[in-house]
Amino acid sequence: MKITSIIVAGAFMAVSSAFASEVDQFTYRGQSLNDSSELLNKKSNAAVKAALKIANANGNGCEEKELYRALTLYFNNHVQGKLTKDVLTDDNITKRTIELQDSVYQDWTMWDGIGMGSKSLSKKAVTMSGEIRVGDHFIGVDKLEHMWGQGYAYFTNNYLKDKGEIKTVKIGAGKEKIILGGNKFGNGVFSYGDLSANFNGMRFWNHMLLKHDDVLGADRNIGPYIACTNDKWSQVEEIDFKNYIDDSMDEGINCSKFPTEKTAEKFTDRLKQMGQACPADIQKRDDMIVKYRQMAKWMVNERGNEAVSYTHEFKNKK
Most CB atoms within 10 A, among 83, 94, 100, 234? Predict the structure, then answer.
């Protein structure tokens, strides 16, 4: 087998198993989409009820382990999450999907990112995510996967394993660099929007039982969504994802970084040809820095599209 074939095969396995799809939030930026928040919330609350039936059937009283196991059957990535698969395939949730060859990433080669740069691999793997509207915000469907899948990993590290919020976000940033597409062996996009989705997913999972104040402060507490009543789990508050989705997940506002300066230049050159730049709205980006307080430095890119530093990106952030 040729070396190139081995690399492509390995990259395909990584791209297929991780949250590898990218979203183009520039090509049709400013064009309207139907708001999917009501249907997304309806499906999410139905998923909670279905999960509670499983948890109550399998558990002896209110066992948190069984609760989270049941919830992750629905709230997870595109490989494991029933709710995610439902959202991805339901045509009633309006999605704007752009083909790779027509997207802002159309100039990618294998030197920028194998996932999108290899023609054979990009045809086999899901490289482009659809874009949806939730309330007033536009995000890639991949951000839901990050919230539910990586968000649970953040929640587990911070709360269940007691690693603390800083170590938790550091681990998340490392994953984004190494295995979730942010290097040449993935799609070549280090997404700060993904990091924000991970972080807000941690908040979402904490709000399930609300055993801890929100990481942004008690003034941001929501829920609990679930409570134990007569030794049975029950839903006591409805989920509304407009509480979690904001401009920090919009990659046109919270700019991504790339493996090399050359790739970053290629991206910004394409934006110039489109008459655009990132961030598309500096004030909205700055509002996100204010919102996330001490944690903003871990999920909001203040520098725009440039090369990511694989060893020093967060060196001085404590």
Answer: 83
